[in-house]
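User: Hydroxysteroid dehydrogenase-like protein 2. Structure?
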Amino acid sequence: MHRSLTNLPRTSRAFSRFLSSSSSKNSELEVQQDSPHVYHVKLNRPDRRNTFTMELWKEMKSTFDRLAEEPECRAIVLSGNGKSFCAGIDLQQGMGELVSIVMNDDIDVGRKGRILRRIITTCQDGFTAIEVLVDGLVRRFCILIIAKRAFFKPLPFKMCSKPVIAAIHSHCVGAGIDLITACDIRYASSDVMFSIREVDIGMAADVGTLNRLQKIVGNDSWTRELAFTARNFGADEALKFGLISRIFNTESEVVEGALALAKRIAEKSPIGVQGTKEVLNHARDHTILESLDFVKTWNMSQLQSTDLRNGAMAAMNKQKPVFENFACFNMFNTGKFFGRTVVITGASRGIGKEIALKLAKDGANVVIAAKTATAHAKLPGTIYTAAEEVEKAGGKALPCVVDVRDEASVRAAVESAVKKFGGIDILINNASAISLTNTEDTEMKRYDLMHSINTRGTFLMSKTCLPYLKQGKNPHILNISPPLLMEPRWFSNHADIMADAAYAMLSKNSREYTGNFAIDEEVLRAEGVVDFTKYAVDPGAPLTADFFIPSAENFPETFSMSRERQLSAAIDEDVANVLKDMGNKLSKDLVDKLGAVFEFTLTGDKERKIVIDLKNGNGSIAEKGDDKADVK
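Assistant: Predicted structure:
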């Protein structure tokens, strides 16, 4: 269910927010799954010979962070599109930014240094994301014990334990060598030309070459010769000194060779292969005794995996072993919200209730603020049934009848919360009203309703809670926005994804994480979640298209078409596919849970009515009107 979440500051900036622009996928890196368990990452700036910009460094990090957590990925090939593998830094964009900072006399030397350090760190992180760096027994995952519960929590850095094979051709200069020295295996075509070029532009290489090359080749003299002179060297010399391990005749052959090797590696145990990378990288940077101690600690847990048993059984039976993927990271409850008080509007059902239950599992105090005090004829849930579920989940509940437009009921609910729980730590503004009509068809009465709930109600709740939030523990205001666009392109999923995303956002330090706009999937991917099948209405099925927010590739940079043409094009292009996709997910179980008939009106060149029957039989979808629909 892709709705948006806004995390607001605790001060007078509480009602400003920064909207991140929706854009198409960045084309500077091309990523594709070449074969089962093998991913191919291509530098894709052929017109600039794949030179690096700040955006490309950032995208390198985000791409390898995702591949590091992708259960399907076991090996990665890295190559470059076009005439060169990588010709270094983009002098116009990359160096231009550095020069502009250095030459800016309005910034003092100390502050310039801080800015430059941050820039260098960003560049280093783009390549370090390819490696696994191990310092003693500090791991990417640590086990924390809270309230006698063990759970995993990712540390704030991610690095890739999957083997990365560089397929190099033509030019590999400057940042290109920084990049390949972070890779595990390096293949090259016979026409390749290497150069550590940084001294020619007045700098020392600072993104990895000087730190990794001599450890790779084991020849300090040769490394210094190359770094001091910036001279070119070819494939034969690189092979002689151990920078690469194989030479191929052409660019296509080196890529094919790298993919074949990756496929072979991907057939092996992911526990064994990724553990081997971890141990090798640790051994590179530590003494033999330290490394032996590390591998003992490593294998005391890893030898308990099913891979060892499966491999041994296959060997005894003279069969080829088949190994399972890793399970992906999930948003586990950690207990960090124990005893904290959360006010949630619109929490009697749907997204608000799911967030309430997620926090209740930590032992939070949950104030359920909603209008539904008596059961609806068709829709399940009241503030009292939600309160019962919160208490069963492990939290404490306070149901309050609240109309967010009414000052008296808002004030009474806040005062009751403070009296019962001693304060307020978090406010979640979830109550909202929407309309799927376009501007011309939206009645002012409907607009006034949306404005009074979505804007005035949010302001009123925030204003009333703010004095107590200022005294709260890591206080947050989280606004769950109604849809930003009304194109009826995507149909929503169930609300668990919003609960997990809210949990992740509210866990952050409110002094550092504030004024943000976010989409649920983006939040969870940043937390390391890569398997989103559990959020689908039908577990195991892909996420269905969201009913409100268009996909990135279909989101225009500018709205050149009229509103009517946008809606018409969206409906004509997608409605049949969306209905078919939804029809495949209907089931008797879904009908039993919802028990209602829904009618949607889709506007465009011609009005279309869609009826989704989740009340009878196994459910059905039809393009027609229904006077007996329960929800319109």
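The chain has a mean pLDDT of 81. The chain has four domains: 4-16+331-535, 38-266, 270-316, 555-622.
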